[in-house]
Amino acid sequence: MKKILVTGSLGQIGSELTMALRNQYGTDNVIATDIREADSPVVTEGPFETLDVMQGKEMHDIANKYQVDTVIHLAALLSAKAESNPQLAWNLNMNGLMNALEVARELDAKFFTPSSIGAFGPTTPKDLTPQLTIQRPTTMYGVNKVAGELLSDYYFQRFGVDTRGVRFPGLISYVTEPGGGTTDYAVEVYYEALKNKQYTSYIGQGTHMDMMYMPDAVKAIIDLMEADPSKLINRNAYNVTAMSAAPEHFEQAIQKHIPEFSLDYEVDPVRQQIADSWPNSIDASKAKEEWGFSIDYDIDRMSEDMLEKLKAKLN
Ligand code: AKB
Fold first, then answer.
1. Does ligand 1 have an atom closer than 6 angstroms to the CB of 182?
2. Which of 68, 110, 196, 242 could serve as 162's disulfide partner, Cβ 3.0–4.6 Å?
3. Which CATH architecture has domain 4-169+212-239?
């Protein structure tokens, strides 16, 4: 990777990935784009262009101007938001992806886009969900993610575009909050623990979902993009995870640092139904085998770091 275009660079993944890529490959070699501008180092400390990913020609013109050799396409609507506006989700998630894949094809660029545990559905085996298994999701986001995995495979097989992807679990970060996902509670809980020592979870007790700390997610993207292409059998997209956790596990991990913290429940039926349709835990063995996926943070290490960094940020 030498000249990298990132879409959705002000989002939850983009704001950290862009800075990590600039550290690794040089500031001028990472062109950040987003539909909006913001007071963020992503905008102020390196090349930045405003871009609506639904405008294919504009995306092509920016990629061509900087002669990019890698496209990292992150702009998308998350699961809960997609459920409240499925038509917009289809337009943004699918047409944005198609435009980005076309840019990669035209410029002969490497390509990454994230899939999600949302690509699984209620008929998928729930525990240690295999890499290759039933994928009949019941959400618009899930439909988009499965179609995205297939479309990325298609661009690889039909046009030889070097497409790669992972199925991310819920991502937890202290830098940028997620917007409109089902797993967002796992970020909110840390903010509320520090601010109010109390959190009301919209996801019910005992509901397990896979989660990962953002530094591990950023590392996974960079490692996968650097991996030897001849080793990649399951390109689009690899199961990756760091932990399978339910709300009470976050409560226990936080209480090790804030003993008076308490958690109660007020379940949101829409997001609970989405969570219930997703796996309890996924099997990341193919990612480990094919490109050496590994993690540094379990729930305890993550909670310690998250609380420390968030405390500094909120003060
Ligand atoms: C969401 O909850 O929509 C995302 C995801 C798991 O893809 N965090």
1. yes
2. 110
3. 3-Layer(aba) Sandwich (3.40)
Residue ranges of domains in the chain:
4-169+212-239, 171-210+242-314
Given a cut of 70, is residue 1 above it in pLDDT?
Answer: no
Cα 105 to chain centroid distance, Å, stands at 23
Q: How far is CA 287 from the centre of its chain?
A: 16
Q: CA 30 to CA 202: how far, in whole Å?
A: 37
Residue type, 56: G
183 lines ligand 1 (CB under 6 A): yes
- What architecture does CATH give domain 171-210+242-314? Alpha-Beta Complex (3.90)
Q: Which of 81, 124, 177, 183 to mutate to test the pocket of ligand 1 (most atoms within 8 A of CB)?
A: 183
3-state secondary structure of 72: strand
**Structure tokens, 13:** 């993944």
Q: Where are the alpha helices (DSSP H) in 108-232?
A: 140-159, 185-196, 214-226
Q: Which two tokens stand for residue 77?
A: 């609507």
Among residues of the chain, what percentage have pLDDT more than 90? Answer: 98
- Whether the CB-CB separation of 296 and 216 falls below 8 Å is answered with yes
CA distance 283 to 294: 13
pLDDT at 143 over 90: yes
Query: CA 178, CA 189: separation in Å to the nearest integer?
Result: 13
What single DSSP character describes residue 260? T
Q: Pick the catalytic residue: 66, 141, 213, 265?
A: 141
Which residue's CA is minimally distant from atom 8 of ligand 1?
A: 170
297 catalytic? Reply is no
Q: For residue 74, report the distance from its CA to the centre of ligand 1, in Å.
A: 13
Cβ contact 202:243 at 8 Å: no
The pTM of the full predicted model, rounded to 2 decimals, is: 0.97
Say if residues 53 and 75 touch (Cβ distance below 8 Å).
yes
Measured CA to CA, the distance from residue 40 to residue 144 in angstroms comes to 29
